## 1
Amino acid sequence: MGKFKLVKKVDLGKFWEGAYIEFNAPTFKDLKELTAVDADNQTDSIDNAMTVLGNLFVGGKIGEDEVKKENIADLPVEVLTELFKEMSGTPDPNA
């Protein structure tokens, strides 16, 4: 992670009321790692993306539960997809 940190808060209210995840906004280097896809080994690509997400993770809350770095892989894929979209700056087509 670069020396300039910018914390980004992702609202997960469409999944759980009041839920959110905070992470450090990715650098260009992080984005390259996050979006790198190895067609021959997609499992490694997914693991790499989860590692980047974990390294950028700051905190979060779902209901009364505190979300911790070690819980990220337990989130539903739909939520992880939303986080990756937010991190990579992918615009919401419905916005």
## 2
Amino acid sequence: MRERKPEVWFEIYRYFVQFEHFMMMDARFQAELTETKSEVQRLKERLSMGAPTVQKDLSFISLVRKWSGLGSAFTVEEFFASIEASAKIGRWEENDQLQIAALKLTDSAKIWNRN
């Protein structure tokens, strides 16, 4: 029988370590996949039971100040920021934000929006 060189043994050992690492990663992946599947199943069950849906809170409309245009006391960026912040807290949809923005326009800004 022919004797193998140390380099060959090193290569065999290196492949064995890589294989062992791969098997450990595969086991972790399988565990995460199982956990994810069970979480998806729990969520499906909650949906099928008619879990309460999240309601939007339009009371935050009062936090949005009216904006009249260029001569306004605050900038258009501040106007949009107040709408976005209120929308995030109140769980508004994009369409809600657009409608509220249009309702909060006054003076020249309102005339510009109509055109």
## 3
Amino acid sequence: MDAIRLSGSGLQALATQHAAGASEVAGGVPVAGAAAGGQPTSAAVASANTLVTATARQLATRLSATGRKVSTIGTVMTAHDHESADRLSALSPTVEV
């Protein structure tokens, strides 16, 4: 069975990737009014653009929320690691030779 290895810096890097992904998704929204006004497909294009925009916003929101959660987990995990190390050090102080 493989072990999952986590690090605070790795989780922070993942959180940063989520933030960048959210910005990229939100920035890739189609321009409103891209279709020519008199064409029969204008309404269909406008409707599709509205759906794509709403979907992109929802994905960006989810990416941002996930990134914040991952960042929090990384911070808490690092704090717990330091606390555990301090407790172990108190049990058996280091002997220098």
## 4
Amino acid sequence: MYGKGNDVGLRRTDVTVHEVEQLASRIVELIDEELPESALEKAPDFFESVKEKTLAINETVATTNRATSGQVRALKNMLGAVEAWQRG
């Protein structure tokens, strides 16, 4: 997909596809299994959006077999946000 000339402006990262999959799985697991019901009730649209974006990033990374720094940063930020809701 991304040849030498096509990835201009995309910054690569040392994070592997497997590590992206782990981040994405953790985000989905937190939302689906570990968040308090009260959090899900207060911000259902937020959690649905996070889950959709997480799955989309994971799919793109799996398809291209590459992760950009922006994708990794977005996943880490979303994980941090979901963990903050989990802590209350």
